[in-house]
């Protein structure tokens, strides 16, 4: 029963976006078609040591869209955004969840939502983690990618 639950979570979280580590920070890669315009982007994370601690890594507002193969990070966000809050996600934490939320506002996050569970950030250097949990050498081999 536990394995089935894991599969359902993975399938429901599958999005055409991936995550890697480059130059000591997490980097996102959009694999879908060009998006509509959005006005809000938020990246948050949770670490476990020994209890869960949630934190905001990036909050930004403005007019932006994601283009096919566009990459962005916390320090190099999509063009058109004004950053309200920026911090780093600790790479050295082995138990972390990363939440990406894009929408029209802080309360309307119906655009792009993905959750990543990097088990070992050091192993991601040059490899790509999909929201489904799959790790691949290519950023865009998941279902829904172009």
Note the overall shape.
globular
Helix content: 10-25%
User: What characterizes the major β-sheet?
Assistant: 5 strands, antiparallel
Beginning-to-end CA distance, first to last residue: 33 Å
Series of H and E elements: HEEEEEEEEHEE
Low-confidence stretches are 1-11
Computed over alpha carbons, the radius of gyration is 15 Å
How many H/I helical runs? Answer: 2
The neighbouring-strand order within the major sheet is 6-4-3-7-8
In round numbers, the mean pLDDT is: 87
Q: How many E-type strands?
A: 10
Could you tell me the strand content as a percent range?
35-45%
From the helix content, strand content and strand pairing, which structural class follows? Answer: mainly beta
Report on this model:
By secondary structure, the chain is mainly β. 11% of the residues lie in helices and 42% in strands. It contains two helices and ten strands, in the order αββββββββαββ. It has helices at residues 2-13, 121-124; strands at residues 17-22, 25-30, 38-48, 52-64, 71-73, 81-86, 96-103, 112-116, 128-129, 135-136. The strands form three sheets. Strands 6-4-3-7-8 form a five-stranded antiparallel sheet, with no helix packed on it. It has a three-stranded antiparallel sheet with strand order 1-2-5. The model is unreliable at 1-11 (pLDDT under 50).
């Amino acid at each position: 029963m536990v394995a089935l639950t894991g599969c359902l979570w993975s399938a429901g979280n599958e999005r055409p976006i991936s995550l890697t580590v480059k130059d000591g920070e997490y980097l996102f890669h959009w694999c879908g078609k060009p998006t509509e315009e959005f006005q809000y982007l938020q990246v948050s994370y949770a670490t476990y040591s020994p209890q869960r601690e949630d934190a905001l890594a990036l909050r930004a507002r403005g007019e932006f869209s994601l283009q096919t193969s566009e990459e962005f990070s916390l320090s190099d966000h999509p063009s058109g955004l004004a950053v309200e809050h920026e911090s780093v996600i600790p790479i050295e934490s082995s138990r972390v969840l990363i939440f990406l939320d894009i929408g029209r506002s802080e309360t309307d996050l119906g655009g792009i939502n993905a959750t990543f569970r990097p088990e070992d950030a050091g192993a991601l250097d040059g490899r790509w983690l999909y929201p489904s949990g799959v790790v691949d050498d290519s950023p865009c081999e998941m279902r829904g990618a172009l």
